[in-house]
Design goal:
The complex is a heterodimer of chains A (88) and B (499).
Chain A (H helix, E strand, L loop, with lengths): L6 H14 L1 H6 L14 H15 L16 H15 L1
Chain B lengths: L3 H11 L4 E5 L2 E4 H17 L6 E5 L4 H12 L3 E4 L6 H10 L4 E5 L3 H10 L4 E5 L1 H8 L16 E7 L7 E6 H15 L6 E4 L7 H12 L2 E4 L9 H6 L4 E4 L1 H9 L13 E4 L6 H10 L4 E6 L9 E4 L14 E2 L3 E5 L4 E6 L11 H4 L2 E5 L5 E14 L3 E7 L3 E4 L2 E4 H12 L4 E6 L9 E7 L4 H12 L10 E5 L12 H8 L1
Parallel strand pairs in B: 1-10, 3-4, 3-5, 5-6, 9-10, 11-12, 12-13, 24-25
Antiparallel strand pairs in B: 1-2, 7-8, 13-14, 14-15, 16-17, 17-19, 18-19, 19-20, 21-22, 23-24
Classes of the chains: A mainly alpha (88), B alpha/beta (499).
């Protein structure tokens, strides 16, 4: 199943839509680095991570995670999928 | 006294074979950095320069670092521009600082072109990274013609202004050398040390990173934008030995599992500055960076980077708050009747650019007993003296707030919004109120009976004029603004609506 059917994907897309508009958000390449491309700044990104934690009951841990692996939509979905599986 | 130019020149030659800079996955030696910077210096010299001030439009890339060195070597003033700031704000800064030359990297040419449309007389110097690498191998020619040049102003930084316009703070070479002469021995770095560069160049704490590192023979590691909120892996991979960031970065690391015990044994010095340092984070940091001393720095941009320090003792208790500490030995602090911290000494700027009488009031001239004139800078910070021999921060006397260490005058946002909305019932607040929260943002409340479209248009208007950290996270339209008994807008009632 594609991550695009997951609730967290919809949630992430909604947050990005708030920033750049729905049309642009839907056209966005899911693999680009949201921060390096200036779509979200680090403050937006952190606030989104915290909302994701609250909404999906997660406790994210980035001890050894290279941030470039989860600053894209696909990377973030992958990270959350792993967390969701680990906690369920 | 040795000039900054001669100190830097000396370091670039003395440490020639050592690593100087790691940026975008490339490591450069002092010799390479020297060659590149001399190339940039030549470009600046050959260009049709009418002013001695150079704006820099580059972000976490080689062009920015080599241009700063080039400015120092040729006695020019550098003015870093925020690549995320709206064009109108950049143009206003360029005008205020009377800049005629703009150095731009290939990445931000479009911003430079937009600026050129509005300021046709500005000279744009485009520097390609490939050209820098090509020059890094060439043998350095000596440029004696620069040796006699002297510069009074080293850099200009802009901070939020309550009058609705950013304030330009010029820092002289004497200001900066006073800072470095104390802080370099204090940090005790040398060849082989690896230091962090977390701050944007538009934030004056970055000046510490550059010059403390290079004058010590250490290597500066520039964190990529996306590593800034998750730097744990970067610190480990590059075995950094010295860290300097805003406390928010540490708080984010604590929140996301990056401050576990003994995680960063390579660190031996950790500095924090720019906002209040939460005790529980500092203690977690100390346990995580188990071999590091942890120091809180304090100081406004007007007094050059930092002017007070407090080393956190090993056995510090969670219950105690972390003081801003005591003044650097060459600086003086004093308290006004309303507990405002006054700062004087060799690090205090001579005054703002395009200073209005109101802005001049921040610098009070007092005759001393021996009839010298002493300038006391009014910091706007409320502090208390503690018998332990240090000052404790108690809050602001005005409405200035800090967002990730950036100074924000809420009035600056309100004035813009009031002008746009032609309405005075507007209030900007910061939330959550807890000074230790790293998720703080600005919320703008407006009394209006206009509909949602108005809010969208206002967002667009503000985003065109304010840098990202000053843009409201949310605009809230109210039919009735809550007022307190004095008829003023009731901020507490507004805050309560966000809880």
């Amino acid at each position: 199943m594609s991550f695009k059917e997951e609730a967290y994907y919809q949630f992430i897309l909604e947050k990005i839509s708030n920033k750049i508009g729905e049309i642009k958000a839907n056209e966005l390449d899911v693999n680009i680095n949201l921060i390096e491309h200036g779509i979200l700044d680090s403050l937006d990104f952190i606030s989104m991570l915290m909302e994701l934690e609250t909404k999906f009951g997660l406790d994210l841990d980035f001890e050894d995670v290279d941030p470039t692996t989860f600053t894209s939509i696909s990377g973030l979905c992958l990270l959350i999928a792993g967390e969701v599986n680990a906690t369920s | 006294m040795q000039t900054l130019k001669s100190k830097l020149n000396g370091a670039l030659c003395k440490f020639a074979n050592c690593d100087a800079l790691y940026v975008n996955k490339q490591t450069l030696s002092y010799a390479q950095l020297n060659n590149m910077s001399h190339y940039v210096a030549q470009l600046l010299d050959n260009s049709d320069v009418k002013s001695n001030r150079v704006a820099i439009l580059a972000h976490r890339e080689l062009v920015a670092y080599t241009t700063i060195i080039a400015c120092i070597l040729t006695a020019k003033t550098y003015v870093p521009l925020n690549i995320k700031a709206p064009i109108e704000r950049l143009v206003s800064m360029i005008n205020t600082a009377k800049i005629n030359t703009l150095v731009v990297s290939e990445k931000y040419q479009n911003i430079a072109n937009d600026i050129k449309m509005l300021l046709p007389d500005i000279e744009i110097v485009l520097i390609a990274e490939a050209a820098l690498y090509q020059k890094s191998q060439e043998e350095l020619k000596c440029f004696n013609k620069w040796q006699s040049l002297t510069n009074s102003i080293c850099y200009i930084m802009f901070t939020s202004g309550s009058t609705g316009k950013p304030k330009g703070v010029p820092i002289s070479e004497d200001n900066l050398i006073s800072y470095l002469d104390f802080v370099i021995p204090f940090c005790g770095l040398s060849i082989g040390d690896r230091t962090s560069q977390t701050f944007d160049l538009t934030f004056d704490l970055s000046v510490h990173d550059l010059f403390v590192t290079w004058l010590s023979g250490a290597c500066l590691f520039v964190l990529p934008e996306s590593a800034l909120f998750s730097p744990g892996a970067f610190i480990k991979k590059h075995r950094l030995t010295a860290w300097f960031s805003v406390p928010s970065t540490g708080a984010i690391m604590q929140k996301f599992g990056m401050l576990k015990e003994n995680m960063y044994p390579s660190l031996k010095l950790s500095l924090f500055c720019g906002e209040a340092l939460p005790t529980n984070m500092a203690i977690a940091w100390q346990k995580s960076a188990c071999n590091s001393k942890v120091v809180n720095f304090y100081g406004p941009t007007e007094a050059t980077i930092a002017c007070a320090y407090f080393k956190i003792p090993d056995d510090y208790s969670e219950e105690e708050i972390i003081p801003i500490g005591k003044a650097f030995p060459h600086m003086s602090f004093s308290l006004s009747d309303n507990e405002e911290l006054l700062i004087s000494g060799t690090q205090v700027t001579a005054g703002y650019l395009e200073s209005t009488p109101e802005m001049k009031e921040n610098f009070e001239q007092v005759s001393s007993q021996d009839e010298n004139i002493i300038t006391w800078y009014h910091s706007g910070d409320k502090v208390a003296w503690h018998e332990g021999g240090y000052y404790i921060y108690k809050g602001r006397l005005d409405e200035q707030v800090k967002i990730q260490g950036y100074r924000v005058e809420l009035q600056e946002i309100e004035i813009l919004a009031k002008n746009y909305a032609k309405n005075n019932l507007i209030k900007a607040i910061v939330w959550p109120r807890d000074i230790n929260s790293f998720n703080k943002a600005i919320y703008l409340f407006i009394q209006t009976n206009k509909k949602e479209k108005f809010s969208e248009e206002l967002v667009e208007f503000l985003n065109k004029r304010l840098p990202h950290y000053m843009q409201p996270r949310k605009i809230i339209l109210l039919e009735n603004m809550p007022l307190n008994l004095n008829g003023k807008i009731d901020s507490n009632a507004l805050r309560a609506t966000l809880e």
